[in-house]
Design a protein that fits this description.
This protein is of the alpha+beta class. It has two domains: about 160 residues, Jelly Rolls (Sandwich), CATH 2.60.120; about 50 residues. Helices cover about 35% and strands about 30% of the residues. The chain has five helices and 15 strands. Strands 1, 2, 4, 5, 6, 8, 12 and 15 form an eight-stranded antiparallel β-sheet that branches. The chain is globular. The structure holds fe (ii) ion.
C-alpha cells in the first residue's frame, strides 16, 4: 500500500535540512548495496547529520499521523540521500533489518523538487506507480514493495528516508486499520463544522468514541503485543 501526506514536517524544517549540502559530508551509496544497482550519495553520520536528526525527529517520533494512523511503534534514525544528474537506484525492497529495526513501512520525503527525473517509482502488483516530486511530500509505503528511483536527468534530488516498525505486522490487516483510521479522520473533519458551537457537541463526541472503539477492536484482534 502507498500513501502521500504533506503535513508531517514543517516547511522551515524541510528548508533547513535540505539546503547547502556539501559533498564532504557524504559517501557513495553503493557501499551499502552489493548488487551495484545504486548510484547516489548518502550522508555520513556526522555532526551535521546529528543536527538534522535533532531537527526532524520530534516531528517523526511525535507524529500523531505516523504513530496513530500508520501504527508506528519504532522509528529508525533518518537517512539523507543525494542524487546528482545520472544517479539512480534500481528495483529493490527494504524488507530486511535496517538500522536496528525490521521495517514494516518505509518513507521517502522530498526535500526539493527543482529537478527532472528522479521520481520514486513503486511497483504495486504489476503496475509502476510514479510519485510526483513535491518538496515536503511524505510518501509512505509497505517495506516489502519493490521500488526504485528513476535516473535524475536534470538538477539534483535530495531526499530524507526512514523506516518504521508498526503495531500490526501483517500488511493486509495493517492496511485495513490504516485505511479505517484515515477514513475516520476524514469523516470527523467533515462532521466537525456541523457541531461547532452547538449543544449537539456531545453527539459528535459520541460518534468519535464509536469510531475509535471499532479501531481498538481491529488492533486487539490483529495487533502484536510483543
Ligand atoms: Fe529502498
Amino acid at each position: 500500500m502507498l500513501w502521500e501526506k504533506s503535513d508531517i514536517i514543517p516547511n522551515e524544517i524541510i528548508d533547513y535540512i535540505g539546503k547547502d549540502w556539501s559533498e564532504e559530508w557524504f559517501h557513495s551509496g553503493n557501499l551499502s548495496n552489493p548488487e551495484k544497482i545504486k548510484k547516489n550519495m548518502q550522508m555520513d553520520e556526522n555532526n551535521i547529520w546529528s543536527n538534522y536528526c535533532s531537527a526532524v525527529q520530534p516531528y517523526i517520533k511525535g507524529s500523531k499521523v505516523l504513530n496513530n494512523m500508520f501504527l508506528g511503534t519504532k522509528h529508525s534514525v533518518p537517512m539523507f540521500s543525494w542524487y546528482k544528474e545520472g544517479d539512480q537506484y534500481g528495483y529493490h525492497n527494504d524488507n530486511y533489518p535496517i538500522r536496528n529495526l525490521f521495517p514494516n513501512l518505509n518513507y521517502t520525503v522530498y526535500l526539493n523538487d527543482d529537478f527532472e527525473g528522479g521520481e520514486l517509482i513503486i511497483k504495486v502488483g504489476n503496475v509502476e506507480v510514479v510519485t510526483k516530486p513535491e518538496k515536503g511530500k511524505f510518501i509512505i509505503y509497505d517495506s516489502n514493495l519493490q521500488h526504485r528511483v528513476a535516473p535524475v536527468t536534470k538538477g539534483e534530488r535530495k531526499v530524507m528516508l526512514g523506516w518504521m516498525e508498526t503495531e500490526i505486522k501483517d500488511s493486509f490487516h495493517r492496511n485495513l486499520c490504516i485505511e479505517y483510521s484515515l477514513s475516520c479522520n476524514d469523516i470527523l473533519r467533515d462532521l466537525q463544522p456541523r457541531y461547532d458551537n452547538n449543544e449537539e457537541d456531545l453527539e459528535f463526541i459520541e460518534i468519535g468514541k464509536r469510531l475509535a472503539n471499532f479501531r481498538y477492536q481491529i488492533l486487539r484482534e490483529y495487533g502484536r503485543s510483543d
